[in-house]
Specification:
The chain has helices at residues 19-22, 28-42, 47-56, 61-73, 79-94, 98-107, 112-119, 124-138, 145-158, 163-173. By secondary structure, the chain is mainly α.
Length: 188
């Protein structure tokens, strides 16, 4: 007995419409512009972040440079303003110190000179007040003083505050002003 196989059948593909019907290979410059505009619509971005997004999509380097230069020329990309905005926002929302802000700016692709200019707006007195406010909000009295001091020092270190400032502020928060042995860090 011979088995009869059914013929394979597939539905015909619908005719292409829109840009795909006219241009099977999209223009790299149009792709780059589209990526940049989509990302900038959601939130401000640095030039470096936009370049990385375009590179992930396979946009040639010369096209990336040309599009980003044009966006910078018309004011859609401004790394200096982006850096100032990021510093202001991260200090207000997360209470980050200069050191942590510098790391974040570097991660976002902001050059050292632009980052330094944005960080110059953070004065040491303001930084100390932010750290003190963080400690007041997070200080718990239902925890052993030694444990609380270690937690507070770790929290301030994660936020980029210098060890000397952190120790002094934690000591102020404690009743006796002394830190337990093993908790004290190096002075600045």
């Amino acid at each position: 007995m011979t088995s009869r196989r059914r013929p394979r059948w597939s539905a015909p593909e619908p005719p292409a419409t829109g840009a795909a019907a006219v241009d099977p290979e999209p223009d790299p410059e149009q792709v780059a512009r589209s990526i940049a505009l989509r990302l900038l619509t959601g939130a401000p971005r640095s030039r470096h972040q936009l370049a990385e997004a375009m590179a992930r999509r396979g946009v040639p380097d010369d096209v990336v440079t040309r599009v980003l230069d044009r966006f910078t020329e018309v004011g859609l990309i401004d790394d200096a303003e982006y850096a100032r905005m990021l510093v202001r926002a991260r200090r207000e929302s997360r209470g980050l110190a200069r050191r942590a802000l510098a790391v974040e700016l570097r991660r976002k692709g902001i050059d050292d000179e632009t980052a330094a200019a944005a960080l110059d707006e953070v004065d040491p007195e303001s930084e100390e007040e932010v750290a003190r406010a963080l400690l007041r909000r997070r200080w718990r009295t239902d925890v052993a003083p030694d444990v609380q001091a270690r937690r507070a020092l770790a929290m301030l270190a994660r936020k980029g505050y210098p060890p000397g400032l952190s120790r002094r502020l934690v000591a102020e928060m404690r009743d006796d002003g002394d830190l337990p042995a093993g908790v004290a860090g190096d002075e600045e």
